[in-house]
Each structure stands twice: as structure tokens, then as C-alpha cells.
Amino acid sequence: MNKAIFYFAAIAALFVVYFVYRNDVALTQPATTAAGPTPAHVPTPPASTGMPASVPPLSPRASGVAAFLNAADTQAALEVQQRLAVGHPPLAAEMAAELGDACYRVSVEGSLIAKTPGNQWVLDRIKQYCSGYRSDTPAIELRKRALAVGSRAAVEKQLADIETKDGVDAAKREAEQIILAAADPYSMDEARLYLARQPGGWSLGATLPESTLTGVNRDTAQGLAAKMYECEAFGGCGPNALQTLTWCAQYEVCQPGFGLLDLLRATNKPANFTAAEKILIELRRQRQAYGR
After folding, report:
1. Positions of the region Disordered (predicted)?
2. Kind and range of the H or E element at 5?
3. Angle between helices 60-69 and 218-234 (to 10 degrees)
4. Nearest by Cα to 253 from 104, 144, 140, 117
5. Percent helix, strand and coil across the chain, each rounded to 5?
6. Residue 259 banded pLDDT, cuts 50, 70, 90
7. Predicted pLDDT of residue 131
């Protein structure tokens, strides 16, 4: 019994550490006042407008990622993950861990999610998504493998090697190039996290007039813009998408019909979100010019 308790505690701890790391505070800075945090306004979910014409067409690999992120259930997601395991093991490792994390939360942490006021519907949706999930490998092992050999790990090592050899500025330039050229959101997000940890952030949005940045946390706005672009290019951010549901499980601002961008709008200062929308335009232009 003690071993079982220790095992489940270890899985929960690893999941929490990873999820906090992945969902960096640069994306989720709540609105504040002089008196401290205040509940953000919860907007009415807008109607989906589809992918902007300015988003470059997806490569075959990226199309596979999009199919995974937009899968209606675990069976469809696992089919994509298994196909990509042949030619793209790092991507497949990330996907397997993502499914394991989410579906593990239902079986072990579901009662905790349900105790959050207003989040029972999130738990019900995740349960529905994960109803057909089966894995011979425990979630903690899937996450360990992703941390060791996944797309994020490859980018982390690449940037660390460049930083050691050529310095931080060279690594920051490479991280920006990864964001512009990446064919999957995991690599893009790891590069974004690297830049968010560096003094001075990154250059995206540096050409915006200062008048548009009044009261703006530039790092937060840049991170939001990168996440917005990930959503446009790869999907997986609409209502009922697994990524949206797992993020909504952490907050009380979501309601049925919310997409991930609705959550980000509700949990960030309006000035940061507005600046992010302007930076997004520049990011689209740069990605187009990069010729992906």
C-alpha cells in the first residue's frame, strides 16, 4: 500500500512540475490592481473564424501534428501518434506524454478538478475524450521519456550547446529562428520558454511604437503572440480540444464553448493581450518571409 501511495504521489509531482513549466507565467499573468489580483472579465466565446489566410500551409509533418491536436478522442489521437512514431520519434514521445498526462489526471486527480467550482464540465469532457485511452506504459514513464528524447528536449539541448559555445545572444538568435521555422508547436514553445527566461527577452515586436506598449509586459505579450500563432498554425485550441480542456482544468474562468484564446484573454491584462495581437501580425509576416 505504501509503495502504491508513493508511486501515485511521484506521478502527481512530476505532472505538476511539468505543467507549471510548460504553461509558463508569461502566458497566464492575471489582471491586477493596487489591491492585488482581481478576477478577469470572462468574455463571451466568439464564433470561430477559421485559420487566417496569412498562415503558411502546413508541411506533412506539421499536418500530422495538427491532426493529433484536433483529434476528437484518444483513439484518433493515438492513431496519429503511432504513425508519427516511425519517422518522428521525438514528436511521438511528446504526444504520448500529453495523452498520458491528461488521461492520468482524470483517473487520479479527477476528484480535485471536480472540487473547483464550475469545473465539473471540464472533468466530464476530459473523461469523454479519454474514455478509450489505453497504455501499457505508466504516465510518469511517458513523461520521463518525453523529457529525455522529445522535441522539447532536442531544442533545449540545441540551445544549451549554442549558449555554451557562442554565448547567450547567439542562442537567443537561434531560438527566434526556431520559432520562425519550427514545424511543430512543441519546438516553438520550448524556444519561447528559453527566450522568456533570458534578460531582455527577444526582438519580436521591437518595432512596435512605444505608444502601443504603455503598461505592457513585453515578455508576456510576446509569449501570448507565439501561443496565438501556434493555435492558428496547428489548431488544438478550440472548444473541447484536449489542450484547451487541460488548461481550463487549472482555472475557474472557462465555460462551455471556450477556446484556449478565450482563456488567455480572460487571464491576462487587456493591455498585454492587445499588444500580443499586434505582435502576432508581425510574427505572421516574419513566418511568411521565412518561407516555411
Report:
1. 32-54
2. helix 2-22
3. 100
4. 117
5. 65, 0, 30
6. very high
7. 86
Cα separation, 195 vs 32, in Å, equals 24
Q: How far is Cα 269 from Cα 155, in angstroms, rounded to an integer?
A: 30
Q: Is 280 exposed, middle or buried (0-12, 13-18, 19+ CB in 10 A)?
A: buried
Instruction: Tell me the pTM.
Output: 0.75
Contacts of 72 (CB under 8 A, 6+ apart): 129
% pLDDT > 70, the chain = 72
Beta strands in the chain (DSSP E): 32-33, 36-37
Cell of 228: 496565438
Looking up cell 496519429 gives 80
CB 14 within 8 A of CB 143: yes
**Residue 33 φ/ψ, nearest 5 degrees:** -130, 180
Distance CA 194, CA 214 (A): 25
Residue 114, pLDDT > 70, answer no
DSSP state of 291: T
Distances (CA, A) of 77 to 42, 67, 228, 237, 240: 30, 8, 22, 15, 14
Whether residue 205 contacts residue 279, with contact meaning beta carbons closer than 8 Å, is answered with yes
> Cell 519546438 maps to which residue?
187
Q: Which amino acid is at 235?
A: G
Torsion, Cα of 220, 221, 227, 232 (10° steps): 170
How much is the mean pLDDT over the chain? 77
Helix, strand, or coil (residue 30): coil
Closest CA to 123 of 138, 132, 113, 108: 113
Are 200 and 176 in contact, with CB atoms under 8 Å apart?
Answer: no
Cα–Cα nearest to 126, from 163, 95, 100: 100
